[in-house]
Structures are given as C-alpha cells and as structure tokens.
Write a structure and sequence with these properties.
- Helices cover about 60% and strands about 0% of the residues.
- The protein is mainly α.
- The protein has one domain.
- Strand 3 and strand 4 form a beta hairpin.
- Helix 9 crosses helix 16.
C-alpha cells in the first residue's frame, strides 16, 4: 500500500503580504490562477513557469519561498503578463514588489533599507552628507598627512572648492564604497546560499551534468546577456523600454569607470605624477564622463516618460468580467516611491554634475559652490542607498542569472513546484 506523503506545513506571513500590497501589489487579490501570465511570458520556462506560482505564493504570504525564488529575478518587468491579465492583477508589479522585499531582506542594516521606501527620510539623506563633509573638512588636518601626502606631486588646477580638497573627497567616498561592497558581498552570499538550498529541495542540483555550466562560463553567459539585453529583447508589449535600460546601464558603467580611476589615484601606478584635477575638458576621462552622464540623463528621462505618459493600449486589459475598450487605471507605469526616488536621485546627480561643470568653467561664484554641495549630497545618497535601491537589481538579478545558468535551471528547470 502506497504511503500518503505528509503535507508540508504552510506558514503564511500576513505582514509580508500586506507590504507587497502596499508597495505596488494592490491588485494581487484579483488573481484567480488562470496561468495566462505564465503562458504569455517569453522568459518563463516550460518546467518552471512564472509568475503564476509567485502570484499564488504572494496571496498566501509565503515569504520564505518567494525570497529564495530565482524566478523573481529572471522576470524583467516588461509587463507582457500585465498587459494580458484578464483580471487586471498586474503580475509584473507584484513581482517588482517581491524583488523590493528581497533586496531589503538580504541587505543590512534593514532600517537603512527602509528609508528607501519612506519619503520623509529623503531630506535626512541629503542633509547628512552636508553635515558629515563639514565635520570632516573642519577636522581634516590630521587626515591630510595620511591621505594627501601621496598626491602632493599631483597638480590641482582651480579646484571645485578649496574647502573640500580632492584627497578629502576621495577618502570620504572611498569609505562609503567599501562599506557598500561589504553589505553587497554579505547579501549576495546569503542569497546564493538560499538559492542553493531551494534548488536542492526542488531537484535543480540533480539536473544532468551536460546541462550545467561552470561558474566562469555562467558569468560569461550572464555578462553577455546583460550587455546585449538578450532577455529583454524577447519581450513584446514593452520592447521600447529596452533602450532606456541600455542607456542607464552603459552610462552607469562609464561613470563607475571614471570614478574608480579617480578614487584609486593614490595606488594607481598609471596616475603617478600625471594626475591633473579637475580633468581638462578634452581629457579622455572627461569626455567619457560627459558621454556617460548624457547616456544616464537620456535613459532616466525615457524611464520617467514611460512611467508618466506611456498608457496601456485600449482593449488589452479588462475589469470585472467583461473586456473593455478603455484604459485600465489610466497608465500602466504608475510606479512606486521605490522607483521614483531612484530615478529622482539619478537625475539630480547627473543634472547637478553637468551644472557643476558648466558653472566651474564659467567661474560663477558662489553659485558653483552651492551646486557642488548639492551634487555631492545626491552622490552620497546614491552610494549609501545602492545596496537597498533599484541599483541593487543589477547585482541580485545578475547573481540569479549566474545561478540559473550554473545549475542548468534555464535549460531544464527541474521538477515543477506544483508536482
């Protein structure tokens, strides 16, 4: 006689479900598990379709399953599923809300991550760097011997502000970057451990060896996918959004390269006795920074347009039980504070950066100092919030994509979650 397996205990987290509803998943309860979303998604696999199961788990408040679910990161929020959902449950927004919870879960301290979703915390995040920079500048003499000694031979030509010398800014922001790196490494380590535990429970580790890839090969596959936007290119309804993401990605990478080049001035042998700050307008690094800033500005502007102007085509969604030829809730990309704060800070950073450059070359005093301080404040906020904001998507999504390629998850998928 065949033994009846003992059912697994289900432990709903009502607080988690309520947070999902409050952060973009307010239509979650409309889902009636028709699986249309999984059928129309070009990225969903045959054995592990999504986002149907994620919608069910979210309705039940199954926090542990969702946070260790690789599929929430394989979703690119293209809204193919949302545009065709017969109930208007907006699966794309629900998946985005789950990703936000995952970012906060794996990053520490969580109280700082909660500031990302609290509008009243933004003034504090912008004022804090002004106070810190003021204190550091006031007590900078002991530090000057440590950080400025190795750059004494470098030429500083008409600095942006003599009260905030380059060595001080390098020490200040390099410290923030190192703290970010620690938080991200710890978060990704926990995330990878949970993915492995979940994968072993579902049998992903039992996939045939020829369907797996080495870690190195998986990283190469993922980098190519990200740079070429191969997955995003398979989306249909919202395909134009791919361009805005490309501009932001390449702009961010360009600015990161320039910033790391400057931050490593003390240890970079290529910069010894040849570092001139600020860069000449025709310096290759200045040109790269301006091109990257322009790409960021264009990409963020396109994202803002998508979230305020781009409406759902008539007749693609319906309310209740009958199809309607009108717009559903006005716009598809209504967004959340989590999205808007990232876009706002990114735009403010780029705009104030260009403003600093223009005012600096024009020698407009004291306006250029004021804009410079605002620019540093926005840069500070972006760096501090990097492990907790939309920027963290790049890190956790890339990790999930590496895991999926490494385990053969994307090719076979293992047993179904519902079997």
């Amino acid at each position: 006689m065949t033994a009846i397996p003992t059912p697994a205990a289900v432990q709903p987290d009502r607080g988690f479900r309520n947070r999902l509803i409050a952060s973009g998943g307010e239509d979650l309860k409309k889902c009636f598990q028709c699986a249309t979303c999984s059928v129309v998604c070009e990225l969903s696999t045959a054995r592990q379709p999504f986002p149907r199961k994620e919608m069910l788990w979210a309705q039940w408040g199954l926090k542990d399953r969702l946070l260790a679910d690789v599929d929430i990161w394989l979703c690119h929020h293209c809204n193919d599923c949302t545009s065709r959902c017969p109930r208007g449950a907006r699966p794309g927004d629900v998946m985005a809300a789950v990703r936000r919870e995952a970012i906060l879960h794996y990053s520490a301290p969580q109280w700082l991550g909660n500031c990302v979703s609290q509008p009243h915390c933004l003034p504090f995040l912008l004022l804090l760097p002004c106070v810190l920079l003021g204190l550091v500048a006031w007590g900078s003499r002991p530090l000057e011997k440590l950080f400025a000694a190795s750059t004494s031979s470098n030429r500083i030509i008409i600095s942006y502000w003599s009260q905030l010398p380059q060595w001080l800014l390098i020490a200040f922001f390099a410290t923030l970057v190192l703290l970010d790196a620690v938080v991200i490494i710890l978060g990704v380590s926990r995330f990878w451990r949970d993915l492995n535990a979940r994968g072993q429970a579902m049998g992903f580790a039992d996939n045939r060896e020829h369907e797996k890839q080495s870690i190195a090969a998986s990283i190469r596959t993922t980098l190519r996918n990200i740079l070429l936007h191969e997955d995003f290119d398979r989306c249909t309804f919202n395909h134009p959004r791919m361009n805005s993401h490309r501009f932001v990605l390449f702009g961010f990478v360009g600015l990161l390269v320039v910033d790391l080049w400057v931050l490593t001035v003390r240890f970079n042998p290529l910069l010894k006795d040849a570092f001139v700050y600020p860069f000449n307008f025709w310096s290759p690094w200045k040109i790269l920074a301006n091109l990257a800033g322009g790409a960021m500005l264009l990409g963020c502007s396109l994202m803002v347009r998508d979230r305020t102007v781009h409406s759902t085509p008539a007749g693609t969604l319906y309310e209740g039980t009958l199809f309607k030829g009108t717009l559903f809730k006005g716009t598809l990309f209504k967004g959340t504070w989590f999205d808007w704060m990232f876009l706002g800070l990114a735009l403010a950073t780029v705009l104030t950066g260009f403003g600093c450059e223009i005012l600096h070359y024009a020698r407009v005093d004291p306006l250029r100092y004021m804009v410079y301080v605002v620019h540093l404040a926005t840069v500070f906020a972006l760096i501090v919030l990097l492990p907790y904001s939309k920027f963290a998507h790049m890190i956790y999504r890339a990790t999930a994509m590496v895991y999926a390629a490494h385990t053969g998850r994307q090719r076979q998928g293992g047993p179904s979650e519902f079997e």
